[in-house]
Design goal:
The chain is α/β, with parallel strands linked by helices. It has two domains: 137 residues, HAD superfamily/HAD-like (Rossmann fold); 66 residues. Helices cover 42% and strands 16% of the residues. It has nine helices and eight strands. The protein has a six-stranded parallel sheet, with helices on both faces. Helix 8 links the parallel strand 6 and strand 7. The longest helix has 14 residues.
Length: 208
């Protein structure tokens, strides 16, 4: 069997609306104009951005996640509007039935993960959840994937994500990658767009 590592936002949970609402509420409290939805989502999925400068007009910001320091806003909006993508339960059930080691590697703050996953009733599926915290670098740095792979059950690991940061993280970690674009057109060989194509891709890696 294999270790299957998932990104969280955009991969397991549809958090786009929560992120946009949280960023714009923070901006409102800082007396800044709201940003457009697509601009916010494109920015967070692009590596190497100065997120705090772009989103909040903050020049000195020591965190690698744009959520750190503003957790209360994200907790509020995640609680209100986050949902699982259709098919996530079936994918996780398939992995568990096949005795895969399951983990999460996300750029969300570590302390926010348990409440989010508990609310979506998927916490119990995972053997390891790892987010950004002191000493843990954000993706596309490969640190999280390497830490998980080093302590995981099996020799072979795959990473499933939805963004350029995820793709680069897998490349940097020299790990096989599946790109999930829920309900969008498949453009590359490593892509899946629903539970069926995702399970098929995972199965292919199990056999390989």
């Amino acid at each position: 069997m294999i270790n299957v590592i998932f990104d969280m936002d955009g991969t397991l949970i549809d958090s786009a609306n929560a992120i946009v609402c949280a960023v714009n509420e923070i901006r409102a409290d800082l007396n800044l104009e709201p940003l457009k939805r697509e601009f916010i989502l494109d920015t967070i999925n692009t590596p190497g951005q100065n997120y705090a400068k772009i989103f909040y007009g903050v020049d000195t910001y020591s965190h690698t996640s744009f959520k750190e320091g503003y957790e209360k806003y994200f907790i509020k909006h995640y609680d209100q509007s986050v949902v699982l993508f259709d098919g996530v339960f079936e994918v996780l059930e398939f992995c568990k039935k096949n005795d895969c080691y399951l983990a999460i590697a996300t750029n969300a703050p570590q302390e926010s993960l348990v409440p989010i996953l508990k609310k979506q009733n998927i916490l119990s599926y995972f053997d390891k959840i790892l987010g950004v915290s002191y000493g843990i670098e954000a993706k596309p740095d490969p640190m999280m994937l390497r830490l998980i792979a080093d302590e995981a059950k099996y020799e072979k690991s795959i990473f499933i994500g939805d963004s350029l940061k995820d793709r680069l993280c897998a490349k940097n970690a020299k790990m096989d990658y599946i790109h999930i674009s829920w309900q969008k057109e498949i453009k590359n060989l490593d892509e899946a767009n629903d539970k069926t194509t995702l399970i098929d891709k995972i199965q292919t890696h199990m056999k390989g």
